Amino acid sequence: MMSDAIEYLMDMWPLSTGTEDHLTSHHLLLRDSVRNEAFQEAIRRIVKPGDLVLDVGAGTGILSAFAIQAGAQHVYLVESEDTLSCARQIFERAGWLERATFIRGMADRVTFQGGKVDAILIELIGNFGIDENILDVIPTIRKKALKKGGKIIPSRLRLFVVPIMEESLERELGVYRSVRHGIDFSPLAPLADNNVYLLNFRNARLLAEPQRLAEFDFLTCEGDTIESRVNFSIKQRGRMIGFVGWFEIDLCEGISLSNLPNVNRTHWDQIIFPIGETQAVEKGDRVSFRFRYRTTAGEEEWAWSGTIQTRAGNRRFDLCNGDRFLLPKVRTRHTIELRIAN
User: Fold this and answer.
1) Taken in order 287, 226, 127, 38, is the CA torsion positive or negative?
2) Do domains 7-123 and 157-325 have the same CATH topology?
3) What gap in Å lies between CA 284 and CA 80, rounded to an integer?
4) What single DSSP character describes residue 126?
5) How far apart (Å, rounded) are the C-alpha atoms in residues 2 and 50?
6) Whole-angstrom distance, CA of residue 42 vs CA of residue 46
7) Using N-to-C axis directions, what is the helix angle for 19-30 and 33-46, rounded to 10°?
8) In this structure, are residues 87 and 58 in contact, taking their beta carbons and an 8 Å threshold?
9) Could you tell me if 169 and 199 are in contact, meaning their C-beta atoms sit under 8 angstroms apart?
10) Can you tell me the distance from the alpha carbon of 270 to that of 277, in angstroms, rounded to the nearest whole number?
């Protein structure tokens, strides 16, 4: 008989589709042995026999399975997608159904009553750490569900950026400023510039020393806004295409994961913040980078700006992620008369 049971109430939430895309993402997660082994060891160290554990965004249930293996008395798997039914079947085959509760919905819409958990597992870690809304979810679910003195895995998140030279990306983005087939496609450039891109760098040329952009302790962090600025001194000549960003997470003391460029061994890519047209830089040039992030009504807003100070003068850039900033929606009605030649 399970003691200190937790009841839960849940608002209805429209379930998303796109099973194919979700299966692809879970395939990447399941085959990422570096990620999985690190989480398994961290959970083994943190979760104690008899613990109650909440798994936020449980997916296939792999982290909850690790918690059961570590001796958890009961796990609560919260997931809004179809994979939850698969997780239930996996637990049934393992003989763990009586030690698990499967909750279909969004974690921040679940209300816990009658008790709290000893540990929260939350792998809402995107390619830049924050891009799966973890900063929005963590404070809410922590206050609702975590016991005093409880643990969160991962426990801490750090974000890094550095100016970069990348010839392949320069060629790709150059398409939007090119004349092809006798047609000038440069009106597409603002849309291309005001976007972020994912690449997995194996031989990246970093033009300066990386700087820490932000850091979050998941046991204490509040809010989902970032406003940060860092400065760089260029250390080698190159053609700067923008900034590369990555994360580092501490799962527990002594166990960390990162998608650092050139040494990345996980499924995570790095994120690119373009600056528009490529900028030639020399050793000693100065670069500043300002990053702004917030969520509004569940929608993420990204913006980045800065200055490149070279011997030839200063250049400013001010960009954001999302065409909603560039293309105001105007509702119009058109009547078109078709003229057909006799």
Assistant:
1) positive
2) no
3) 50
4) B
5) 10
6) 6
7) 70
8) yes
9) yes
10) 20
Q: Which CATH superfamily is domain 7-123 in?
A: Vaccinia Virus protein VP39 (3.40.50.150)
CA distance 326 to 318: 12
112-121, 283-292, 318-327: which has the highest mean pLDDT?
A: 283-292
Average pLDDT over residues 54-82: 95
Give the residue-averaged pLDDT of 113-134: 92
CATH of domain 157-325: 2.70.160.11
pLDDT of residue 27: 81
Distance, in Å, from the CA atom of 226 to the CA atom of 295, rounded to the nearest integer, reads 10
Within its chain, how far is the Cα of 319 from the centroid?
19
Residue with tokens 């005093």: 148
Q: Is the dihedral of CA 82, 88, 91, 93 positive or negative?
A: negative
pTM beyond 0.70, yes or no: yes
The closest alpha carbon to 306, from 318, 321, 292, belongs to 318
Nearest-5° angle of CA 302, CA 206, CA 224? 25
pLDDT digits (tens, 9 = 90+) for 252-302: 999 999 999 988 688 899 999 999 999 999 999 999 999 999 887 667 889
- Residue 291 CA to residue 117 CA, distance in Å, equals 35
Give the domain ranges of the chain: 7-123, 157-325
